[in-house]
Amino acid sequence: MNPPWPFSTAELTAGLRRYFAEPTLRVVTLREQPSTFYSGTTATPTRVRGLRVDYAVGEHALNMVCAVKEPQGASRAGLAGAGRREAGVYRALAGQLPMPVPTLIAADPAGEWLIFEGVDIEVPPAEWRPEHYHHAVRLLAELHERFWNLGDDLAAYTWLARPLTGDFEIHVFAAAQALAKLIADDWPPVVTRSTETLRALGQIVSQADHIAAPLRALPFTLLHGNFWPGNAALQHDGEMVVYDWRLASVGPGILDVVAFIFNSQWMLGALPVGSEALITDYRAELQRRLNVDWSDADWQRLWDHALLWRFLQDTLAWLASVTPATFTPHAAESFQHAWLAPVLAAAQRRLLKFES
To answer: Over 50: is that where the pLDDT of 146 sits?
Structure first.
């Protein structure tokens, strides 16, 4: 029988020896245990398992808890694998990030599996208070400031995604294929049973350049890509250990803020703080740090374009793969309220209208 882990004992041993700087360390036993790490949003699932490692150094018997992550689903053709991208962030950029991240112990070269040090989540996402959400958006602003207008410098990290530039055609093609599959499968009904919804989604795909244009004009920075409470191990002292960097990319910071707010609402329901208050906080933090500001009208236009792009980039492909078992009536209602209705409203405001 094959072992239940995707790595060998030798690979884990080598990683632990580097982690502890102890060349005599020996792995004795491995035991699976529940993991407190979240496994991503509904749109970006992955498999995470807890691992207790019993090891020995000389005559001393010791143990530690790790998290083993196995990214699920195939990567889009032409893009670096999500696991490889995440491993790249931990190996090359962790020391430059303004927030703590788990230590990477070992990883498959292709990103098929990653092993991290265990991190306790002392305050679960459902128990976040308003001050935690405000701290989170300020962390995003600090991350974006750290790499502000460094898109050319970040080109050295070829595994980072570039959805609005180098990877643009890949995402648009994937979105077009996803929309065609939705129509062919006539699923899910929340989308396919509405002619107006299908027409709007077709416009979003066909006007991808129009949607992307104002976003490309913004300064580019490093994006987490999927930052929300489920990807931050919140401690009682307020510190957030941020993980799940599979969607790390280069682009305008507003894309991170859109993902943070809409994914939080989607996965957690009504938040203890309004989205406008969080947006105001983010904008004020950028103005304080970088003297960057937009008029309210300009910000609303950029917000709508960012919302439309995030839906095209990630959510359409997820919709095309969702099954009835996971997309229950309750899940469909939550998705419609948190994502679909705002996207359709933004499409009505911002997409070009053509006479038939």
So the answer is: yes
Q: How far apart are CA 181 and CA 185, in angstroms?
A: 6
Contact, 256 vs 225, CB < 8 A? Answer: yes
- At residue 277, the pLDDT reads 98
How many CA atoms within 13 Å lie on the side-chain side of 12? 24
CA separation, residue 132 to residues 71, 168, 240, 259, 338 (Å): 28, 34, 9, 17, 20
CA distance 79 to 75: 7
- Band (pLDDT 50/70/90 cuts) for residue 4 is confident
Phi-psi region of 20 (alpha: psi -120 to 50; beta: other; left: phi over 0): alpha
Average pLDDT over all residues of the chain = 93
CATH of domain 125-350: 3.90.1200.10
Contact 322, 182 (CB under 8 A): no
pLDDT tens, 292-335?
Answer: 999 999 999 999 999 999 999 999 999 999 989 989 999 999 99
In this structure, how many other beta carbons lie within 10 angstroms of the beta carbon of residue 213?
12
SS3 content of the chain, % helix, strand, coil (to 5): 50, 15, 35
| Contact present, 312 and 171 (Cβ < 8 Å) | yes
Q: Which residue ranges make up each domain of the chain? A: 19-117, 125-350
Q: Angle 341-350/296-310 helices, nearest 10 degrees?
A: 120
Whether 156 has a pLDDT exceeding 50, the answer reads: yes
> 47-81: per-residue pLDDT in tens?
889 999 999 999 999 999 999 999 865 456 556 68
Q: How many CB atoms lie within 10 A of CB 355?
A: 3
Going from the C-alpha of 228 to that of each of 66, 292, 317, the distances in angstroms are 22, 24, 20
